Automatic annotation (TrEMBL):
Protein name, as recorded: Asparaginase
Highest taxon of the lineage: Bacteria
A Pfam family it matches: Asparaginase_C
InterPro entries, sorted: AsnASE_II, Asp/glu_Ase-like_sf, Asparaginase/glutaminase-like, Asparaginase/glutaminase_AS1, Asparaginase/glutaminase_AS2, Asparaginase_C, L-asparaginase_C, L-asparaginase_N
List of catalytic residues: 17, 99
SUPFAM superfamilies: Glutaminase/Asparaginase (SSF53774)
This protein's record includes keyword Hydrolase: yes
UniProt keyword terms in alphabetical order: Hydrolase
SMART domains, sorted: Asparaginase (SM00870)
Signal peptide location: none
Family: Belongs to the asparaginase 1 family.
PANTHER family linked: 60 KDA LYSOPHOSPHOLIPASE (PTHR11707:SF28), L-ASPARAGINASE (PTHR11707)
Length: 335
């Protein structure tokens, strides 16, 4: 006989605006993030009690404003996600998160775990105390997505949009539709609790690194130091030289346009790369990918996603030894 035991759906809380609180219901910017527990968030969505055949497990992994996300929290979250996914009674799970660094956490989890079950991140642009909070609907949609047969990988849901980890970007500082999927577009829409799939689930996501079990094992104090430097009008090479002198181990350049780098930075970046510091190029443009001679491992990612990926790549190199072509990054810009 088939089992009548309910499936277990863990809801992991990390804080963010979705758990934020303000003294004024009309104040959507003066709130304090990460004030309400994930258990309270679940209790505030009565519709979750009507989900058939599912038992929820609320777990507070962290309680912080996502602008303050850090490697220790990533590692703790990754370990808990991996542990839950290994349980046969768990079809998927949900993570509540802030929007500010959500794209970084999503790509980090995808690269580290490459999950074959759905790991769904959701968030909010208004605090839980707002007159019309967006968090409850997003949380309900995330639960529906985490239980969807065939869904897999790290996914993000907000405002009814389902986005893949590699595609999601925060594109607006205030609007409810702040999260978008750029050129790739949404994977699916969630409408009245139904998932309308537009294209296949990302069974295999092309990333320059992963899976990276070392990220769950190596103490965060031993993770490589990687920073983002910006190419812009009036860029100064001293930022690169200062970081190298301080011991930085990898650099991502937020380039102008199609992977172009200010001439004042070029020589310093070439010196850094020649000295064993990988340099990856990621466009500061909101949409699109770098094409042509400047394309490299980070061509399709935001500079902030690329920083997380380069850190993982360096960690993997340290553990497993050189893996080949992903080391290439910096290219001499075209005229």
């Amino acid at each position: 006989m088939p089992s009548t035991d309910p499936v277990i759906l863990p809801i992991l809380g990390t804080g963010g605006t979705i758990a934020g609180a303000s003294t004024q219901a009309l104040d959507n910017v003066g709130y304090t993030a990460a004030q309400i527990s994930v258990a309270q968030l679940l209790a505030a969505v009565p519709a979750l009690g009507a989900e058939p055949g599912v038992a929820f497990e609320a777990e507070q992994v962290a309680q912080l404003d996502s602008k303050d996300m850090d490697p220790a929290t990533w590692q703790a979250l990754g370990r808990r996600v991996a542990a839950h996914l290994a349980r046969p009674e768990v079809p998927g799970l949900v993570i509540t998160h802030g929007t500010d660094t959500l794209e970084e956490t999503a790509i980090w989890l995808q690269a580290v775990l490459a999950p074959t079950k759905p790991v769904v991140l959701t968030a909010a642009m208004r605090p839980a105390t707002a007159l019309a909070p967006d968090g409850p609907q997003n949380l309900l949609d995330a639960v529906r997505l985490a239980r969807t047969p065939g869904a897999c990988g790290v996914l993000v849901v907000a405002g009814g949009r389902v986005m893949a980890a590699a595609d999601v970007r925060k594109r607006h500082p205030y609007r409810l539709d702040a999260l978008a999927a750029g050129d790739a577009g949404v994977l699916a829409w969630i409408e009245e609790g139904n998932v309308r799939l537009l294209r296949p689930w990302p069974v295999a996501t092309a990333l320059p690194v992963g899976p990276c079990a070392a990220a769950l094992q190596v103490p965060v104090t031993d993770w490589p130091w990687v920073e983002v430097v910006g190419s812009h009008a009036g860029a100064d090479a001293r930022q690169v030289d200062a970081l190298r002198a301080a011991g930085v181990q990898g650099l991502v350049v937020a380039t102008t346009g199609n992977g172009t780098v200010h001439r004042a930075l070029q020589a310093a970046l070439e010196r850094a790369q020649a000295g064993g510091c990988p340099v990856w190029l990621a466009s500061r443009c909101g949409d699109g990918v770098i094409v042509g001679p400047a394309a490299g491992p980070a061509a399709a990612f935001s500079p902030w996603q690329a920083r997380a990926l380069l850190q993982l790549w360096l960690l993997q190199q340290r553990v497993a030894g050189p893996q080949g072509p992903a080391a290439a990054g910096l290219r001499r810009p075209s005229a």
